[in-house]
């Protein structure tokens, strides 16, 4: 049984009961939701947050990132995270569904932006003080528009978010080593692959299955994953299995044997070997180390 909460947008803002968008200044948001942010949780929406003050750490799917003035984070639906602060944070945060963005920009996809392109791309960005001041205005404008009662409100917010994502993507591309590809076909295929893996990783572990589902050869699929992410198809499948194993080990009441079965491994010893090969720890060792 899973015990990690999955939050939705309706839980956050009662004065503006939108089901597809939410925004707030970070100080108010964290104060209102202090029962959530320091415990592991996930969302069913996209999240973007900018820190203008404060220090601490942000754990996202078992990777820890420092929080400082100028930190920006991007989360996709389903990712598990929580915050820990050493000094009071300030900034801005907004959530939205995929439809909120794509209904306003019907010819664009959120995955066009590098931070949403793949789970393999880092969810963090750091702004210098000059850039922070500029980008802070974008976030402030989004927040102001959200709480104003003006016509064409959603259209304005969607436009502001698109501009903000473009500005952040330019900075992200300069700061990260994300490998770009000029092939739009490769990009579309990778998106379909990650979506298909998300649907079947518990039962299907072979690259051939996913290649067949995408109507291409395993060799060509491997070429696409190597070109775009520098990983084999099998690596991507196994990485998704291990991430889910970590989530279940740390955030559920399932036994390790049950987790092995949930993830499609009838033989716990084999599951343990796969887990250790990827993490250098057995499932039990990982559970104990995370608790510590």
Automatic annotation (TrEMBL):
Q: Which InterPro entries match?
A: AraC-bd (IPR003313), Homeodomain-like_sf (IPR009057), HTH-like (IPR037923), HTH_AraC (IPR018060), RmlC-like_jellyroll (IPR014710)
Question: What PROSITE patterns does the record tag this protein with?
Answer: HTH_ARAC_FAMILY_2
Q: Which residues form the HTH araC/xylS-type domain?
A: 191-289
Record Pfam families: AraC_binding, HTH_18
**Which UniProt key words apply to this protein?**
DNA-binding, Transcription, Transcription regulation
Entry superkingdom: Bacteria
Which PANTHER family does the UniProt entry name for this protein?
A: ARAC-FAMILY TRANSCRIPTIONAL REGULATOR, TRANSCRIPTIONAL REGULATORY PROTEIN
Q: What protein does this entry describe?
A: Helix-turn-helix transcriptional regulator
Record the organism: Postechiella marina
Lineage of this protein's species? Bacteria, Pseudomonadati, Bacteroidota, Flavobacteriia, Flavobacteriales
